[in-house]
Design brief:
With 284 residues, the protein is an alpha/beta fold. It is built from ten helices and eleven strands.
Length: 284
Amino acid sequence: MGEVIKGKPVADKITKNLINEVESIKSKGVNPKLAIVRVGANSADLAYERGALKRSEKVGIDAEVFELPENISQDDFIKELHKLNKDDSIDGILVFRPLPKHLDESVIKYEIAPEKDVDCFNPVNEGKLYEGDKSGFPPCTPLAVMEILKHYDIDIKGKDATIIGASNVVGKPAALLLLNECATPTICHIDTKDTAKSARQGDIVVVGVGVPKLVKENFIKDGAVVIDVGINVDEDGNMCGDVDFDNVKDKASKITPVPRGVGSVTTSILAKHVVKACKLQKNL
Protein backbone atom coordinates (compact mmCIF):
# COMPACT_ATOMS: atom_id res chain seq x y z
CA MET A 1 0.00 0.00 0.00
CA GLY A 2 1.20 3.49 -0.83
CA GLU A 3 1.84 6.08 1.86
CA VAL A 4 -1.33 7.93 2.88
CA ILE A 5 -0.35 11.60 3.05
CA LYS A 6 -2.77 13.52 5.22
CA GLY A 7 -3.43 17.23 5.24
CA LYS A 8 -3.39 17.75 9.00
CA PRO A 9 0.37 18.19 9.50
CA VAL A 10 0.45 20.73 6.66
CA ALA A 11 -2.61 22.58 7.92
CA ASP A 12 -1.35 22.59 11.51
CA LYS A 13 1.93 24.21 10.49
CA ILE A 14 0.14 27.00 8.58
CA THR A 15 -2.39 27.46 11.38
CA LYS A 16 0.26 27.76 14.08
CA ASN A 17 1.94 30.63 12.22
CA LEU A 18 -1.41 32.30 11.54
CA ILE A 19 -2.49 32.26 15.20
CA ASN A 20 0.53 34.34 16.14
CA GLU A 21 0.02 36.67 13.19
CA VAL A 22 -3.66 37.23 14.00
CA GLU A 23 -2.85 37.94 17.66
CA SER A 24 -0.42 40.62 16.50
CA ILE A 25 -3.04 42.17 14.21
CA LYS A 26 -5.69 42.15 16.94
CA SER A 27 -3.30 43.91 19.31
CA LYS A 28 -3.59 46.85 16.91
CA GLY A 29 -7.39 46.90 17.27
CA VAL A 30 -8.12 45.13 13.96
CA ASN A 31 -10.16 41.93 13.57
CA PRO A 32 -9.63 40.14 10.22
CA LYS A 33 -12.94 38.99 8.74
CA LEU A 34 -14.02 36.61 5.98
CA ALA A 35 -17.35 36.77 4.12
CA ILE A 36 -18.50 33.45 2.64
CA VAL A 37 -21.03 33.83 -0.18
CA ARG A 38 -23.05 30.69 -0.86
CA VAL A 39 -25.94 30.31 -3.31
CA GLY A 40 -28.24 27.44 -2.35
CA ALA A 41 -27.06 24.43 -0.33
CA ASN A 42 -24.73 22.28 -2.43
CA SER A 43 -23.27 19.47 -0.30
CA ALA A 44 -19.67 20.14 -1.39
CA ASP A 45 -20.09 23.85 -0.60
CA LEU A 46 -21.51 23.04 2.82
CA ALA A 47 -18.58 20.72 3.59
CA TYR A 48 -16.09 23.42 2.58
CA GLU A 49 -18.05 26.00 4.56
CA ARG A 50 -17.93 23.93 7.75
CA GLY A 51 -14.20 23.52 7.37
CA ALA A 52 -13.66 27.21 6.64
CA LEU A 53 -15.66 28.30 9.68
CA LYS A 54 -13.82 25.86 11.92
CA ARG A 55 -10.42 26.97 10.63
CA SER A 56 -11.33 30.66 10.95
CA GLU A 57 -12.32 30.16 14.57
CA LYS A 58 -9.11 28.25 15.24
CA VAL A 59 -6.84 31.00 13.93
CA GLY A 60 -8.94 33.76 15.48
CA ILE A 61 -10.46 35.47 12.45
CA ASP A 62 -14.14 36.36 12.15
CA ALA A 63 -16.24 34.67 9.48
CA GLU A 64 -19.81 35.25 8.34
CA VAL A 65 -21.87 33.24 5.85
CA PHE A 66 -24.09 35.09 3.39
CA GLU A 67 -26.53 32.47 2.14
CA LEU A 68 -28.41 33.60 -0.96
CA PRO A 69 -31.46 31.91 -2.53
CA GLU A 70 -30.77 29.58 -5.43
CA ASN A 71 -33.07 31.60 -7.68
CA ILE A 72 -31.43 34.96 -6.94
CA SER A 73 -31.20 37.18 -10.01
CA GLN A 74 -27.83 38.20 -11.38
CA ASP A 75 -28.49 41.87 -10.62
CA ASP A 76 -29.36 41.08 -7.01
CA PHE A 77 -26.31 38.85 -6.65
CA ILE A 78 -24.05 41.62 -7.89
CA LYS A 79 -25.69 44.08 -5.50
CA GLU A 80 -24.86 41.74 -2.60
CA LEU A 81 -21.25 41.54 -3.77
CA HIS A 82 -21.03 45.32 -3.97
CA LYS A 83 -22.26 45.61 -0.38
CA LEU A 84 -19.46 43.32 0.77
CA ASN A 85 -16.93 45.23 -1.33
CA LYS A 86 -17.90 48.45 0.46
CA ASP A 87 -18.01 46.95 3.96
CA ASP A 88 -14.76 47.99 5.63
CA SER A 89 -15.16 45.33 8.32
CA ILE A 90 -14.77 42.59 5.68
CA ASP A 91 -11.27 41.82 4.45
CA GLY A 92 -11.83 38.73 2.32
CA ILE A 93 -14.69 37.43 0.18
CA LEU A 94 -15.06 33.78 -0.83
CA VAL A 95 -17.70 33.02 -3.48
CA PHE A 96 -18.50 29.33 -3.78
CA ARG A 97 -18.22 28.16 -7.37
CA PRO A 98 -19.53 26.99 -9.69
CA LEU A 99 -22.51 29.30 -9.38
CA PRO A 100 -25.94 28.21 -10.66
CA LYS A 101 -26.06 28.36 -14.46
CA HIS A 102 -28.33 31.42 -14.59
CA LEU A 103 -25.59 33.45 -12.89
CA ASP A 104 -22.94 34.37 -15.46
CA GLU A 105 -19.53 33.96 -13.83
CA SER A 106 -17.84 35.65 -16.80
CA VAL A 107 -19.67 38.84 -15.82
CA ILE A 108 -19.79 38.43 -12.04
CA LYS A 109 -16.05 37.83 -11.63
CA TYR A 110 -15.37 41.47 -12.51
CA GLU A 111 -17.64 42.65 -9.68
CA ILE A 112 -15.66 41.31 -6.71
CA ALA A 113 -13.05 43.72 -5.35
CA PRO A 114 -9.60 42.29 -6.28
CA GLU A 115 -8.14 43.25 -2.91
CA LYS A 116 -10.82 41.15 -1.15
CA ASP A 117 -10.84 38.31 -3.68
CA VAL A 118 -9.16 35.62 -1.58
CA ASP A 119 -9.84 32.71 -3.99
CA CYS A 120 -8.76 34.18 -7.35
CA PHE A 121 -12.16 34.88 -8.93
CA ASN A 122 -11.43 38.36 -10.33
CA PRO A 123 -9.31 38.48 -13.54
CA VAL A 124 -6.87 40.83 -11.79
CA ASN A 125 -5.82 37.99 -9.51
CA GLU A 126 -5.91 35.50 -12.38
CA GLY A 127 -3.45 37.74 -14.21
CA LYS A 128 -1.19 37.94 -11.17
CA LEU A 129 -1.25 34.14 -10.95
CA TYR A 130 -0.23 33.91 -14.60
CA GLU A 131 2.60 36.39 -14.09
CA GLY A 132 3.78 34.82 -10.84
CA ASP A 133 3.01 38.08 -9.01
CA LYS A 134 2.87 37.16 -5.33
CA SER A 135 0.86 40.26 -4.39
CA GLY A 136 -2.31 38.51 -5.61
CA PHE A 137 -4.35 35.60 -4.27
CA PRO A 138 -3.90 32.27 -6.08
CA PRO A 139 -6.85 29.85 -5.77
CA CYS A 140 -6.81 28.18 -2.37
CA THR A 141 -7.25 24.56 -3.45
CA PRO A 142 -4.46 24.40 -6.06
CA LEU A 143 -2.18 26.22 -3.64
CA ALA A 144 -3.06 23.60 -1.02
CA VAL A 145 -2.01 20.89 -3.49
CA MET A 146 1.37 22.58 -3.87
CA GLU A 147 1.79 22.93 -0.10
CA ILE A 148 1.15 19.21 0.36
CA LEU A 149 3.66 18.25 -2.33
CA LYS A 150 6.32 20.48 -0.77
CA HIS A 151 5.60 19.40 2.82
CA TYR A 152 6.08 15.74 1.94
CA ASP A 153 9.24 16.48 -0.08
CA ILE A 154 7.71 15.25 -3.32
CA ASP A 155 9.95 16.18 -6.21
CA ILE A 156 8.15 18.36 -8.76
CA LYS A 157 10.91 19.65 -11.03
CA GLY A 158 11.03 17.77 -14.32
CA LYS A 159 8.12 15.49 -13.40
CA ASP A 160 5.13 14.75 -15.62
CA ALA A 161 1.97 16.00 -13.90
CA THR A 162 -1.49 15.03 -15.09
CA ILE A 163 -4.41 17.18 -13.95
CA ILE A 164 -7.84 15.61 -14.42
CA GLY A 165 -10.33 18.46 -14.60
CA ALA A 166 -9.97 21.81 -16.37
CA SER A 167 -11.92 24.17 -14.12
CA ASN A 168 -10.83 27.72 -13.40
CA VAL A 169 -11.03 26.88 -9.69
CA VAL A 170 -8.74 23.83 -9.62
CA GLY A 171 -7.50 22.34 -12.90
CA LYS A 172 -6.13 25.28 -14.86
CA PRO A 173 -4.47 27.06 -11.92
CA ALA A 174 -3.04 23.77 -10.62
CA ALA A 175 -1.41 23.23 -14.01
CA LEU A 176 0.04 26.74 -13.93
CA LEU A 177 1.39 26.38 -10.38
CA LEU A 178 2.99 23.06 -11.28
CA LEU A 179 4.47 24.59 -14.42
CA ASN A 180 5.92 27.41 -12.32
CA GLU A 181 7.73 24.71 -10.30
CA CYS A 182 9.15 23.22 -13.53
CA ALA A 183 6.81 20.24 -13.85
CA THR A 184 5.42 19.28 -17.27
CA PRO A 185 1.63 19.46 -16.88
CA THR A 186 -1.07 17.81 -18.98
CA ILE A 187 -4.73 18.74 -18.45
CA CYS A 188 -7.49 16.21 -19.13
CA HIS A 189 -10.97 17.59 -19.77
CA ILE A 190 -14.40 16.42 -20.89
CA ASP A 191 -13.29 16.01 -24.52
CA THR A 192 -10.02 14.21 -23.79
CA LYS A 193 -10.17 11.03 -25.86
CA ASP A 194 -8.55 8.67 -23.36
CA THR A 195 -8.21 10.20 -19.91
CA ALA A 196 -6.93 7.00 -18.33
CA LYS A 197 -4.14 6.76 -20.91
CA SER A 198 -3.12 10.39 -20.35
CA ALA A 199 -3.30 9.97 -16.57
CA ARG A 200 -0.96 6.97 -16.69
CA GLN A 201 1.79 9.26 -17.97
CA GLY A 202 1.69 11.27 -14.76
CA ASP A 203 4.32 10.99 -12.04
CA ILE A 204 1.94 13.29 -10.16
CA VAL A 205 -1.82 13.03 -10.73
CA VAL A 206 -4.14 15.75 -9.43
CA VAL A 207 -7.86 15.00 -9.66
CA GLY A 208 -10.63 17.60 -9.35
CA VAL A 209 -13.76 16.88 -11.37
CA GLY A 210 -16.53 16.35 -8.83
CA VAL A 211 -17.33 12.77 -9.89
CA PRO A 212 -17.28 10.24 -7.02
CA LYS A 213 -14.60 7.55 -7.35
CA LEU A 214 -14.01 8.26 -11.04
CA VAL A 215 -10.31 7.42 -11.02
CA LYS A 216 -9.53 3.69 -10.81
CA GLU A 217 -6.23 1.83 -10.72
CA ASN A 218 -6.05 1.76 -14.53
CA PHE A 219 -5.61 5.57 -14.47
CA ILE A 220 -2.46 5.36 -12.36
CA LYS A 221 1.01 4.08 -13.17
CA ASP A 222 2.99 2.25 -10.52
CA GLY A 223 4.56 4.66 -8.03
CA ALA A 224 2.61 7.77 -9.01
CA VAL A 225 1.69 10.41 -6.43
CA VAL A 226 -2.09 10.92 -6.35
CA ILE A 227 -3.68 14.10 -4.98
CA ASP A 228 -7.48 13.92 -4.71
CA VAL A 229 -9.18 17.30 -4.59
CA GLY A 230 -12.76 16.00 -4.94
CA ILE A 231 -15.41 16.33 -2.26
CA ASN A 232 -18.44 14.13 -2.94
CA VAL A 233 -21.02 12.02 -1.17
CA ASP A 234 -21.25 8.38 -2.26
CA GLU A 235 -24.33 6.18 -2.57
CA ASP A 236 -24.09 5.31 1.14
CA GLY A 237 -24.02 8.95 2.20
CA ASN A 238 -20.31 8.93 3.05
CA MET A 239 -17.87 11.61 1.98
CA CYS A 240 -15.52 10.46 -0.75
CA GLY A 241 -13.18 11.88 -3.36
CA ASP A 242 -12.87 11.67 -7.12
CA VAL A 243 -10.39 8.81 -6.69
CA ASP A 244 -11.50 5.29 -5.77
CA PHE A 245 -9.12 5.20 -2.82
CA ASP A 246 -9.30 1.48 -2.03
CA ASN A 247 -8.85 0.61 -5.71
CA VAL A 248 -5.86 2.91 -6.25
CA LYS A 249 -3.95 2.93 -2.93
CA ASP A 250 -1.81 -0.14 -3.67
CA LYS A 251 -0.59 1.27 -6.99
CA ALA A 252 0.28 4.79 -5.85
CA SER A 253 3.47 5.59 -3.95
CA LYS A 254 1.63 8.35 -2.09
CA ILE A 255 -2.05 9.25 -2.00
CA THR A 256 -4.23 11.78 -0.18
CA PRO A 257 -7.41 10.53 1.50
CA VAL A 258 -10.88 12.11 1.45
CA PRO A 259 -11.72 13.31 4.03
CA ARG A 260 -8.57 14.36 5.97
CA GLY A 261 -6.65 15.23 2.84
CA VAL A 262 -6.51 18.41 0.79
CA GLY A 263 -9.54 20.07 2.43
CA SER A 264 -7.92 21.05 5.72
CA VAL A 265 -4.99 22.60 3.88
CA THR A 266 -7.34 24.52 1.58
CA THR A 267 -9.11 26.14 4.53
CA SER A 268 -5.75 27.01 6.07
CA ILE A 269 -4.66 28.72 2.85
CA LEU A 270 -8.00 30.56 2.81
CA ALA A 271 -7.40 31.86 6.33
CA LYS A 272 -3.87 32.86 5.34
CA HIS A 273 -5.25 34.84 2.40
CA VAL A 274 -7.78 36.64 4.63
CA VAL A 275 -4.97 37.70 6.95
CA LYS A 276 -2.89 38.85 3.97
CA ALA A 277 -5.84 40.82 2.58
CA CYS A 278 -6.45 42.41 5.97
CA LYS A 279 -2.84 43.53 6.29
CA LEU A 280 -2.78 44.98 2.78
CA GLN A 281 -6.05 46.88 3.19
CA LYS A 282 -5.31 48.14 6.68
CA ASN A 283 -1.66 48.97 5.87
CA LEU A 284 -0.38 46.75 8.68
